[in-house]
Amino acid sequence: MTRVRLIAVPVVAALVLGAILLLATGTDPLAAYGAILSGAFGPDGIGDTLAYAVPVAGMATALAIPLRAGMVNLGGEGQLVLGAISALAVGLYVPGPGLVKVVLALLAGTLAGAAYAALAAVCENRLGVPLLISTLLLSYPAMSLAGYLVRFPVKDAGSSLPQSPQLPEGARLPELDGVTTGIFLVVAVIAVYAVIDARTPAGFETKVTGWAPRFAIYAGIDRPKLTVRLLAVSGGTAGLVGAIAVLGFPYRFIDGALITPQYTWIGLLAALLAGASPLGTLLAAVFFAALTSGGFAMERATQVPRELTAVLQAVLIIFLAATSGVFKRKARRA
Amino acid sequence: MIDASLFSSALTALTPILFAALAGALCQRAGVFNISLEGSLLVGCFGAVAGSWYTGSAWIGVVVAVIAATAYSLILAIGSITFDGDPIVLGVASNLLAVGLTSFLIRTVFGTEGSFSDPTLRGLGQFGPIPGQSLLVYLSWLAVPALAVLLYRHPWGLRLRGVGERPEAASSLGVDVTKYRYGVILAGGALCGLGGAQLALGSVTLFAENMTAGRGWIAVVAVMLGRAHPLGVLLAALLFGLAEAFGFRLQGIGLPQQATDAAPYVVTLVALFLSNFKRKKGQPA
């Protein structure tokens, strides 16, 4: 009951606030919400929703993994982009048959993301820079590096845009109805996360650290080691998402293409919304992806800017954070 | 390589960060972890441009920026104090809300996408002896000693620090912890409003989507690096401003922009390492 109320109250509150905003711009809120719904799940929109859900759900999972232990990884963007650029380099320059290239590229992306995030964990453990800050600060050089690479050494010579050449035919992840086959990889990662979280000692240690960090240390959990491990898995997942993005359509790295859609931040919100539980995170990510792709449909149907859906997402989280505090306090009192 | 204009452009770069970092330092002192500085700055930018555009006066724009950012900081204040929500969740969400909301508003209010600028839009103009700097730049420097005195030489600051360090003790001495925390968050919002106004109407006059580009986050780092002391925060912001200005200079001699863009973040990270090293050696705990 409380759990339902916990989600339902913020959702209704966000929808009401959105409706007020819509009325202020002179739009019928029901028409706009209807357009979001039909745009996200209608026959024309469901493909877009799924295509958008792949990176958002992937990043949400990546950020949920350390969040489960109460650790916030704010460097997802850097890990994502570094994974993408590493996969691109393998796809472009490593010789060999296509399938080998694809596998190596996915591995390279995962490893690059994992190593970079682990570096942030080492910064906390050895140098006392809080994870929140070390992950965030490391993100910017990675984005700059990728921007530099596709402007100069790996630039597509035939184009004026800051983008790499396309990957060769064989070294691509094929698409099914406009959705990358990378979706299966993302689903597999989420499934593995769900099993580890629910059934293994590692998952339990992580959760205990999240629930009661001091008790966890008292119980003998090596926090620095756990931090490095969780961050490596988190960054590896983010890197994999980047690799999938590059190996899928348009089969190249375009500067800003992974940053502008805010996959990372929307993913982080989804993970926060679900309290980092594996299936909850997936559901929240798909919900946010649907809101975003529905936003484009709403913009076409009603001229209301699609950013309205970004506002709804953030407002929803704010209400959720606030009311979760209220319910927490009520429970404590009772 | 190093001359007066380097310092002038460093000054321009550091002012919005300094305002936001002072806001963060105040909140930190009262025991409030504020990572919504980025969002407040961005709302300040938008408020400044909207105010200036509608009234034709840059200074009314500054007032609107301060009001808008202060009102915006109510989200963190109400959410974290009255409702006991997680400040990190609230901060991340309100930063994202600021991006969405200002992008939404730029399209509904100004009818353009991406950025808004107009020849009739009033900027802050120049003031004082240093060329190219607005009045707000000087104000940000004055705010440093003012806040230092307030925090360390005034009963109000003593109570505020008490609230941050021992909230129960402060409360039992009759200090209203809630009121102090609301006060610093709202005052922080006002400072971010000034920072946003400087960013949008200072050396340029425009609003662009997500134009704060991580400056609020750098301010969060500056609070740590400066140990939440106004002077420390100033030094941290100065370091960042110099790194950014030096980066521009290096672009002039042919270094790619992407390399120099990363410089301030790397410099900040290295500075954090060094300051922590020193502290670890110096202090037993």
UniProtKB/TrEMBL annotation, chain A:
Keyword presence, Transport: yes
Membrane protein topology class: Multi-pass membrane protein
Keyword annotations from UniProtKB, A to Z: Cell membrane, Membrane, Sugar transport, Transmembrane, Transmembrane helix, Transport
Keyword Transmembrane recorded: yes
MF terms (GO), sorted A to Z: transmembrane transporter activity
Annotated transmembrane regions: 50-67, 79-96, 102-122, 129-150, 178-196, 230-251, 263-296, 308-327
A single cellular component GO annotation: plasma membrane
A Pfam family the protein falls into: BPD_transp_2
Record localization: Cell membrane
Major localization listed first in the record, in broad terms: membrane
Classification via CDD domains: TM_PBP1_transp_TpRbsC_like (cd06580)
Protein name: Simple sugar transport system permease protein
Naturally occurring in which organism (per UniProt): Amycolatopsis umgeniensis
TrEMBL record, chain B:
Protein name per the record: Simple sugar transport system permease protein
Topology of the protein relative to the lipid bilayer: Multi-pass membrane protein
A Gene Ontology molecular function term of the record: transmembrane transporter activity
Parts of the chain that traverse the membrane: 51-76, 88-110, 130-152, 217-242
Alphabetical keyword list: Cell membrane, Membrane, Sugar transport, Transmembrane, Transmembrane helix, Transport
Domain of life: Bacteria
Subcellular location, record wording: Cell membrane
KW Transport (keyword) present: yes
Record-level GO cellular component terms: plasma membrane
